[in-house]
């Protein structure tokens, strides 16, 4: 019996096997209780004034997740763009290098072009109408499609300051006032409305926007009032037209493969925290817009409001140009039709 274990080695082997069994038994609960980290890459520095509705949203998410999961999930917030630019962070999230990031719809358009239908001019009549569409069947359908095609699970749709408005160094009241003006526009979708109003569009990096407006490289731009105030455009722009032509959306997304590896209780904690974070964001964004509008008026900016008829007149000029372009970009024109139908029903 050449393969038999010698008698003098059997007690040693038995002790080793017994020790291994004990180690595995003791180690199993420790492994089950090991912390799982959700690393989140954020653009803004911690405590960025006027933008608590973004950073604060993720801070609410952190507090809620860690409490509900009883410590099995830890949320690591990395502020100030330390993990790269928005597109870099988005790709890191998809690869699983990080689990979440605050990328907005424009960044998602680079990996999921269909999201651009949310930027159809005058798609939404109010912020509440936008929330109804995004939280309803249309938003749920888009979230499911985005997850399938990109590996990002949508926990909710957040508001990035609300509606966008045009500003300029020159008086602007109607679409005809943009003729001949050079307007900063990032991305091909943003170019279409400017050109439809007979203006010229120029791509200007966000960190160069203030200087470009101050020196006259461009005459104007569009952003939410909160962003307008954040980068102190009230110092270099005299006129603000409350055009409300576009609604700025963000995605509270998480790497789907990571989410799939969570326990049922952990998934429930993440889902519930996501809902609370979105509620915090939307309420905070509404307050920030009001505060920002008061501040820019106090700084001497001439703010012009538009009534429904004036917005309709602008819409008739810019929406068709964007829709025609979108037809060449989306996976199916049904996305355009469905978005317009859902928005109409939500009015």
Describe the structure.
With 347 residues, the chain is α/β, with parallel strands linked by helices. The chain has a single domain, classed as D-Maltodextrin-Binding Protein, domain 2. Helix content is 49%, strand content 18%. Helix 2 links the parallel strand 1 (36-41) and strand 2 (73-78). Helix 2 packs antiparallel against helix 11 (264-298), helix 5 packs across helix 13 (334-346) and helix 7 (188-196) crosses helix 12. The N and C termini lie far apart (87 Å). Residues 1-32 have low confidence and may be disordered.
Brief digest:
With 347 residues, this protein is α/β, with parallel strands linked by helices. It is built from 13 helices and 9 strands. α2 packs antiparallel against α11, α5 crosses α13 and α7 crosses α12.
Note the main sheet. 4 strands, mixed
From the spread of the alpha carbons, the general shape counts as globular
The share of residues in extended strands comes to: 15-25%
Number-wise, the strands total: 9
Output the number of helix runs. Answer: 13
The strand order across the widest sheet is 7-4-8-9
* Overall domain count: 1
**CATH domain fold name:** D-Maltodextrin-Binding Protein, domain 2
**For this structure, what is the CATH class?**
Alpha Beta
Mean pLDDT: 91
Q: Point out poorly predicted stretches.
A: 1-32
**Cα-based radius of gyration, to the nearest Å:** 25 Å
- Overall helicity: 40-55%
The CATH architecture comes to 3-Layer(aba) Sandwich
